[in-house]
């Protein structure tokens, strides 16, 4: 099952819980219902303009899926899982982000993860230009390369570490280009309790 969601601009004071995201009630209700009925799609595509609320809602959904004490409406915000989501360090929350090669070896998300976390802590609504400035890519082309795709396939083959779900947030999937073909089988038929959010 695949769900496509279109966003309108939103404002959030924090990024961890549904309650902190203003608006988008229809979308949040649909996501809550899917979780309650244990019918969470294995792949979701959130569409919005660059810098809008798709990333905060993706993180809030991951927190809700893995919360140790969820309510009917939201994650608790205080358990160990929620605390790790706030810090963007939950072991079952994975990011795939566009990078650039610094040397002869292809760079992956792990090479830039501290910079990405720092960017989101300071500006959850960051856009492509903010990211380029954060990592100093200057005129270098960003991409999600084949090594990064293969690394994701390996990490998705492992069981969850702490949570009920493994969540992969692919930020700016348009940077996948032809390398995205490597991920088609994984996205179409992921392991149980794995959710891809593009």
Summarize the structure.
This protein has helices at residues 25-36, 54-66, 80-86, 109-122, 128-135, 146-156, 184-188; strands at residues 2-6, 43-47, 93-96, 166-170, 194-197.
Architecture overview:
The protein has 7 helices and 5 strands. The protein is globular and about 50 Å long. Strand 1, helix 1 and strand 2 form a beta-alpha-beta unit. It has a 5-stranded parallel sheet with strand order 1-2-5-4-3, sandwiched between helices. The protein starts with a strand and ends with a strand. It has 198 residues and is an alpha/beta fold. About 5% of the residues have low confidence.
Secondary structure elements and pairings:
Blueprint: E1 2-6, H1 25-36, E2 43-47, H2 54-66, H3 80-86, E3 93-96, H4 109-122, H5 128-135, H6 146-156, E4 166-170, H7 184-188, E5 194-197
Parallel strand pairs: 1-2, 2-5, 3-4, 4-5
Helix pairs in contact: 1-2, 4-5
Strand content: 5-15%
Number of β-strand runs: 5
Structural class: alpha/beta
Element string (H = helix, E = strand): EHEHHEHHHEHE
- Quaternary organisation of the protein chains: single chain
Helicity, in percent?
Answer: 25-40%
Number of helices: 7
Regions with little confidence, pLDDT below 50 for 5+ residues: 5-14
Major sheet: size, sense and barrel closure?
Answer: 5 strands, parallel
Side by side, the strands of the main sheet go 1-2-5-4-3
Shape, per Cα inertia axes: globular
């Amino acid at each position: 099952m695949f769900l496509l969601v279109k966003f309108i601009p939103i404002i959030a004071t924090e990024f961890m819980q549904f309650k902190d995201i203003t608006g988008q009630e229809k979308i949040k209700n649909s996501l809550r219902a899917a979780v309650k009925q244990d019918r969470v799609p294995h792949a979701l595509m959130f569409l919005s303009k660059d810098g809008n609320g798709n990333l905060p809602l993706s993180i809030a959904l991951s927190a809700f899926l893995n919360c140790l004490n969820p309510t009917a409406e939201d994650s608790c915000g205080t358990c160990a899982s929620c605390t790790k989501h706030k810090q963007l360090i939950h072991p079952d929350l994975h990011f795939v982000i566009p990078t650039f090669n610094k040397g002869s070896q292809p760079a992956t998300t792990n090479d830039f993860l501290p910079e990405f976390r720092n960017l989101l802590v300071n500006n959850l609504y960051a856009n492509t230009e903010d990211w380029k400035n954060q990592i100093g890519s200057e005129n270098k082309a960003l991409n999600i390369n084949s090594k990064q795709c293969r690394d994701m396939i390996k990490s998705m083959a492992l069981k969850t570490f702490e949570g009920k779900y493994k969540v992969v947030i692919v930020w700016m999937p348009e940077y996948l280009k032809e390398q995205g073909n490597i991920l088609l089988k994984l996205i179409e038929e992921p392991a149980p309790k794995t959710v891809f959010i593009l």
